[in-house]
Structures are given as structure tokens and as C-alpha cells.
Write a structure and sequence with these properties.
It is a single chain. This protein has one domain (8-112): Histidine-containing Protein, Chain: A, CATH 3.30.1340. The chain contains three helices and three strands; from the N terminus they run H-H-E-E-H-E. It has helices at residues 8-39, 45-60, 87-98, and strands spanning 69-74, 77-84, 105-112. A three-stranded mixed β-sheet has the order 1-2-3, sandwiched between helices. Strand 2, helix 3 and strand 3 (105-112) form a beta-alpha-beta unit.
């Protein structure tokens, strides 16, 4: 089975992925508003620590490309997004983030990029 799709199938997959990324960004706007009301403009100190800890652990993972996964934390919920080369990497990033102390939930919007 080929990992690279062509024609209409490729456009559908691309449109679906872009829709997911757009909706994640649009819906997180509500989360941002509630977050700033609770923690102030600079955010919660605990969220900054969680983000730093998740990034540190992701960077320690040898088979994840550095900076392939972006991390944000709002109200102890970690938002992961970016592009990786396999479903295994998506699962590993999710697993790493869940193990960090203080994480209340994960919103995983990482997508698999098509290899060329």
C-alpha cells in the first residue's frame, strides 16, 4: 500500500487535515479567552512549566524530529500540533505528554506528513 496518494484522494486528505487544523485553531480561541480571565495576560505559571517539561521530554525522544511537534498548555490541557512521519510518532508524542506531572488532558492535532 502506498503512503503517497494522488489525485482526488490526496486533495480530500489534505482538505480534511486542513479543516481539522483550522477548527482546532478556531475553537482554541474560546479556551484562550477563559484562560486569560483565570490567569491573566501572561498565563498560568503551572502551564508554562508543563509546556517546558513536555518540550524537554519530546526533545529527549530520539526518533522524533526536533521541533516537529509544537506544544501549548492552557489550564493544564496540553495542545500538540505539527507534522510527523508516522502514526507511531503521533502516539509516542501523546504518550510522552500524558506522563508529565500536572497534565489534565491532551488535545492531539498532530498529522502524518506524506513522504516524497
Amino acid at each position: 500500500m502506498s503512503l503517497v496518494r494522488s489525485g482526488r484522494g490526496a486533495r480530500r486528505v489534505l482538505c480534511a487535515r486542513l479543516s481539522i487544523l483550522f477548527l482546532t485553531g478556531a475553537l482554541s480561541g474560546c479556551a484562550l479567552r477563559n484562560h486569560y480571565e483565570k490567569c491573566g495576560f501572561r498565563g498560568c505559571a503551572a502551564d508554562a512549566k508543563i509546556t517546558a517539561d513536555v518540550v524537554l521530554q519530546l526533545n529527549r525522544c530520539s526518533f522524533l524530529e526536533p521541533n516537529a511537534v509544537r506544544v501549548q498548555t492552557l489550564d493544564h490541557v496540553v495542545y500538540l500540533n505539527g507534522g510527523v512521519l508516522s502514526d507511531l510518532e503521533i502516539g509516542r508524542a501523546d504518550s510522552i505528554a500524558r506522563q508529565v506531572p500536572g497534565v489534565a488532558g491532551i488535545v492531539n492535532s498532530i498529522v502524518v506528513l506524506n513522504a516524497r
